[in-house]
Write a structure and sequence with these properties.
With 141 residues, the chain is of the alpha/beta class. The protein has 6 helices and 6 strands; from the N terminus they run H-E-E-H-H-E-H-E-E-H-H-E. Helix 1 runs antiparallel to helix 3 and helix 4 packs antiparallel against helix 6.
């Protein structure tokens, strides 16, 4: 994982979310309409909470949509986690070291949703993949 520098705003979100969820949050990405938290592997259920109580608390507190993504040291699994809840058929990693390109194959019905309005979702996936696994690019087939 690359060194990640957090702004004060990011640190505040991470600290508050960690306190509420009682999980180890590795990263926080702030987008226009949502906050994406990367949680330690195995802590996704704990982060969401029973009957999604933690998710709802954070949504009300921050007045934004909240998404939790489980970190995985395996590049493919991490990208798969970033793409949830959309169905990914296949992920191919091409290249080596810092020039890895991930090609995601999804159902036709999920393709536009995965990309998102004005490419927001795929941009967030690209940034998080780059920050945590030095993946150069993520492309949707």
């Amino acid at each position: 994982m690359a060194d990640i520098t957090f702004s004060n705003e990011n640190m505040q979100y991470i600290n508050m979310a960690s306190r509420i969820t009682r999980t180890e949050i590795l990263d926080c990405m702030i987008t226009e309409d949502k906050l994406i938290f990367i949680v330690q592997k195995g802590q996704l259920g704990l982060a969401i909470g029973v009957k999604a109580k933690n998710l709802e608390k954070l949504r009300n507190l921050f007045k934004k949509n909240i998404k939790f993504v489980e970190y995985d040291p395996d590049k493919e699994k991490f990208i798969y986690n970033l793409c949830k809840p959309y169905r990914v058929n296949k992920i191919e990693l091409e290249g080596e070291d810092d020039s890895v390109i991930a090609k995601i194959e999804v159902n036709v019905s999920d393709k536009s949703k995965l990309i998102g309005k004005d490419g927001r979702n795929i941009d967030a996936i690209r940034q998080l993949a780059r920050r945590h696994h030095s993946i150069k690019d993520v492309q949707v087939k």
